[in-house]
Design goal:
By secondary structure, this protein is of the alpha/beta class. It is built from nine helices and eight strands. 36% of the residues lie in helices and 14% in strands.
Length: 294
């Protein structure tokens, strides 16, 4: 069966002779963004991003064919504080999914409780240049309020090279912080650089978890191996495999011209795990099960 998303999933392989790596049972895809029709889900006029439409019906079809796959939906920057598209996906997926949303600092507690009941697990803060919906000076107070009221954690997207500059702030946030895309360290980043050292300290202090995802966002070498970012991923896996999760970053907005297949990305992760299937499974199944309480 052809996959409407443009990558191969177990049970959705276009070529029955394909020997692509299969996902382990109970695997969690820790980073998925849904983009619905513009008529129903208009983009935030403040955003300069114009992602392709990826109809919710297509995602539903894929998920129905792969019932064991767990999913973490992440609010796209392009929608700003309008979480409706994500919430529609979350409603369909039910207890097989969790989500991170974007909410303003004055969000009402009643809305927070409704979101939590729907399966929202935390707030997403994208702090890349031009993307911050909440300024750095307000993120700490906002994160603390959300955690105090409904127990939310944080999903953080920011340039890894700057992580040491905000390390102290992050340590003051309550709850856990999931650092997206391996920290978004640039191609060729050394393990000795201040930002990477800060990430390791945040892990050691039981503050940070790291999402291994979207290697094309950092790599100049590109597929299939993304060699110029592989060393940092292997450093993280060697340092604290118990604090890592994985995400496909579907629909691969950062590499639309030649998006990787699902099995390609699973193979990259296995290679970064030095072929250790126990560690690979831990990152794909066990760690997200613990973190997101599946």
């Amino acid at each position: 069966m052809s996959d409407p998303f443009g990558f191969d999933l177990p049970g959705l392989r276009a070529d029955e002779e394909d020997v692509a790596l299969k996902a382990p049972e109970g695997m969690c895809d820790g980073h998925v963004e849904i983009f619905g029709s513009r008529d129903k889900y208009p983009l935030d006029p403040r955003s300069d991003e114009t992602p392709p439409e990826m109809p919710l019906d297509a995602y539903r079809e894929a998920r129905e064919a792969e019932e064991g796959l767990r999913t973490v939906l992440v609010q796209p920057v392009a929608y700003g504080f309008d979480n409706r598209c994500l919430l529609d996906g979350l409603t369909f997926l039910g207890d097989r999914a969790r989500a991170f949303v974007c909410v303003p600092t004055d969000v009402e507690i009643a809305e927070l409780k409704d979101l939590t009941e729907a399966g929202v697990f935390g707030a997403r803060f994208s702090m890349l240049p031009g993307q911050a919906l909440v300024p750095w000076d307000e993120v700490g107070r906002h994160a603390a309020r959300l955690h105090d009221l409904v127990g939310w954690d944080v999903s953080l997207r920011m340039p890894g090279r700057d992580l040491h500059e905000v390390e102290r702030r992050i340590m003051e946030w309550p709850g856990r912080v999931i650092v997206e895309h391996g920290g978004l360290f640039e191609s060729g980043t050394s393990a000795r650089e201040p930002g990477f050292k800060a990430l390791l300290r945040l892990i050691d202090r039981d503050k940070a978890w790291v999402k291994i995802s979207a290697p094309y966002e950092m790599s100049k070498a590109g597929p299939p191996d993304y060699q110029d970012v592989a060393d940092r991923a292997r450093n993280l896996i060697d340092w604290a495999p118990e604090r890592l999760i994985w995400g496909s970053d579907w629909p691969h907005v950062g590499q639309l011209d030649d998006p990787p297949t699902f099995s390609d990305l699973l193979q990259v992760l296995l290679d970064w795990c030095q072929g250790d299937e126990a560690v690979w499974r831990r990152i794909l199944v066990d760690n997200p099960g613990e973190l997101f309480r599946f």
